[in-house]
Amino acid sequence: MASQLTAEPTVVVVGGGLAGLSASLEIINEGGKVILVEGESNTGGNSAKASSGINGAGTDTQKKLGIQDSPELLIKDTLSAGDDENNKQLVKVLSENSVAAVEFLRSVGVDLTDVNLCGGHSVPRTHWIPSPKEGRPIPAGFEIMKRLRAKLNELHKEKPERFRLLTQTKMVDIIRESGKVVGVEVVSADGEKSKITGDAVILATGGFSADQDGLLKEFGTQTLGFPSTNGAFAKGEGVKIARKLGAKLIGMERIQIHPTAFVDPKEPAAGTKFLAAEALRGKGALLINSEGKRFGNELGRRDYFTGRIQEHAKPIEESFQGGSAGRNAAIMLMSEKTIDAFGRPAFNFYAIVKKFFKKYENHQELAKALNVGDAVIKATLDEYQEIFDGKKEDPWGKKVFPVAAISPNEPIYAAIVVPAIHYTIGGLQIDDHARVIDEQGKPIVGLYAAGEVTGGVHGSNRLGGNSLLECVVFGRIAGHSGINASKTRTEL
Ligand SMILES: Cc1cc2nc3c(=O)[nH]c(=O)nc-3n(C[C@H](O)[C@H](O)[C@H](O)COP(=O)(O)OP(=O)(O)OC[C@H]3O[C@@H](n4cnc5c(N)ncnc54)[C@H](O)[C@@H]3O)c2cc1C
């Protein structure tokens, strides 16, 4: 049986990524209680892997850096990236709440005081943690999840009944009684089944980028054979379980392939890849093909550059840094200046710890390793310098030129990158109260969703940094709607 509605409503949140933790904190802040159900042994999800940051349009950080931005401009960029297929109302809500979302994370101690220019954005607005001069870098997603979890632990210590976390507990079904969602059925690590009930359920179970034999086969045959940047838990269980209940799915065939995932020279054929952060290109990395030539605008949209790699780049031979195991690939080039701008500790993690990058003293060394003529690499770098200096138009329409060009005579760092399944744009249809909508266009009473489990916000293609933003904005909205579920129900 569902618990009775009390002065302190209880909301069951499923999934301990950014959407789930944002919803949980919002519920507690608004006086409710949370039971958080997480299938893995710890919270974090793919959110903890996020490396480029979260979008905010018009933040104090941007103002301090002299960047002029507005929710309207973020709406424009988001719709442009999504080919106008986005749910406009959701995009409006997303953009108008972006400053509050960044502030929400800063309020739990995340130092989001630097911004990146990511592909498809008109201005730098992807907030991340400034790279320390020395020591280990602090990846945005990991830090965000650590701080939110610490805040929830602190609230739990003060008043344990406010926040209960059940890890290694997997939702296997949603319970509906008399037309209302009243809880979920779960299985614990030892295989025991039980029911967890509350006044509302929020699904925050993430996407399906690792569901090769399920939803990817059904909706994304074009993605089969690509590696993935996601954790194995990204199986779309929230989507599948809500679908059985009659939830409407939207944009399921829109699966984002990220153009740049590192090929590990130790394991070039591996199916799970480490993402080459968007910020690398945002700080001036160049991409060339196996012939040593640029073949696209490095700051173009993700689908655009993935298409360029598929059509204009061939697999890299094993003789160059272990090759790309037969996959079409690009070579990412960085210089000392672009490394400094990106952050040396973060770069050293890729170059020294992971060994994805190899250093060449100059273009001749790189040309030799790649088995192309010196003149080809020199011409590529010289031409880019001219474009960078405004003496020539970029043939691929690059208009923003971050940091510096790469001189043929300076050290060049090179890594092989390939496209990888990164994000599932589609999912459960929600409205601007984060209510899950059914096939008939009506909200499923008591059921809410936020984050990658939902669809509609991003249209045909997601803009970098908008996913973490979506998790915070709609996670908080879902939390708010969840604790007001009794009111919402009477309104329906
Ligand atoms: C490598 C990488 C880098 C990225 N970088 C960025 C970035 O810089 N900026 C950006 O905006 N986006 C980025 N993204 C995308 C973004 O991180 C994700 O889309 C977002 O974090 C998803 O958050 P979420 O809360 O919806 O899901 P997740 O964070 O994936 O959390 C879902 C949670 O639900 C749990 N779960 C799933 N099914 C069940 C079940 N049946 N029962 C119980 N628990 C369940 C999972 O174990 C998981 O912990 C990146 C993604 C990846 C993979």
Automatic annotation (TrEMBL):
GO molecular function: FMN binding; fumarate reductase (NADH) activity
Enzyme class: oxidoreductase
UniProt region (Disordered), positions on chain: 42-65
Entry EC number(s): 1.3.1.6
Oxidoreductase listed as a keyword: yes
Catalytic activity: succinate + NAD(+) = fumarate + NADH + H(+)
Entry annotated with the keyword Flavoprotein: yes
Domain (FAD-dependent oxidoreductase 2 FAD-binding) ranges: 11-468
Annotated GO CC locations: cytoplasm
Required co-factors: FAD
Coiled-coil stretches: none
Lineage: superkingdom: Eukaryota
Alphabetical UniProt keywords: FAD, Flavoprotein, Oxidoreductase
Compositionally biased spans, kind Polar residues: 42-60
NCBIfam families documented for this protein: flavo_cyto_c
Protein's name according to its UniProt entry: fumarate reductase (NADH)
The organism of origin for this protein: Caenorhabditis briggsae
Organism classification: Eukaryota, Metazoa, Ecdysozoa, Nematoda, Chromadorea
